[in-house]
Amino acid sequence: MKLISSFSNFLESTVNLNPTRVGVAKAGIDTITEFLESDEIFCDKFIGTTPQGSFRQATIIKPVKSDQDFDVDLLFDLKSVDGWSPADYLTTLSEQFKATKRYKDTVDTRGKSRCVTIDYESDFHIDIIPAIELNGNKFIMNKETNLFESTDGDGYALWFEAQNGLAGDQLIGAVRLMKYIRDKRSVFEAKSILLTTLLGMQVESTDSPPAKYPDLPTAFVTILGRLDQYS
């Protein structure tokens, strides 16, 4: 017995980020985007914002422990600025948020080096990651090293979307379940990007749903079995 409905109910009731939280996060993204579009320094440099990471891949889960929150990565595409060092993009962005009544007490409380973080009163935060394009390649900034770092968030998102398609849309659920086990049991540590990538790599190009992935329990066993043999 596969208990397909039990897996589905467990995801909905325990693992998945509830719709209210998703709505609050989306509202936060919209508000920050509006701020960047109208800010006196960044308005003429603004290109667009795009959710990244688990929020974009739909693998985000509900915080398991009371001291945990969930995060939303927001890529901020902007035009390059002559004379700005990599660190200047982050420090200037942080200063613009700090200069406002709305954000002054909630910005950059976590000391991250590649983003500007906005903490909300509820249990989530948004990491704003500035990015520019140079010679056809996209780069983010590290304010600690003062260096540009190559990135390809769109390429990763398209790869994961393709892998999820090969898995009959079951890869998302499998990733959510593994992230829940990681957070609930604390028997292993792995950053979400690494865990998501490792699980996604177990879906093979020759796989064809529904034969390999007729349901979530089968997909979970298949992917975890392959991961166990992966080296």
Description:
This protein has 231 residues and is an alpha+beta fold. The protein is 45% helix and 18% strand. It has 8 helices and 6 strands, in the order H-H-E-H-E-H-E-E-E-E-H-H-H-H. Strands 1, 2, 3, 4, 5 and 6 form a 6-stranded mixed beta sheet that branches. The model has no long low-confidence stretch (mean pLDDT 94).
Query: Overall pLDDT, averaged?
Result: 94
Task: State the end-to-end CA separation.
Answer: 31 Å
**What is the molecular shape?**
globular
Number of strands: 6
Order of helices and strands: HHEHEHEEEEHHHH
Largest sheet: 6 strands, mixed
Radius of gyration, taken over Cα atoms and rounded to an integer in Å:
19 Å
Helical segment count = 8
% residues in beta strands: 15-25%
Helix content range of the residues, please?
Answer: 40-55%
- Category by helix and strand content: alpha+beta
Poorly predicted residue ranges: none
Task: State the main characteristics.
231 residues; alpha+beta; six-stranded mixed beta sheet; 18% strand
Q: What can be said about this structure in brief?
A:
This protein is an alpha+beta fold and 231 residues long.
Helices and strands in order, then pairings?
Layout: H1 4-15, H2 19-38, E1 46-52, H3 53-57, E2 70-78, H4 86-98, E3 116-119, E4 124-134, E5 137-142, E6 147-150, H5 153-166, H6 171-185, H7 192-201, H8 216-229
Parallel strand pairs: 2-4
Antiparallel strand pairs: 1-2, 3-4, 4-5, 5-6
Helix pairs in contact: 6-7, 6-8
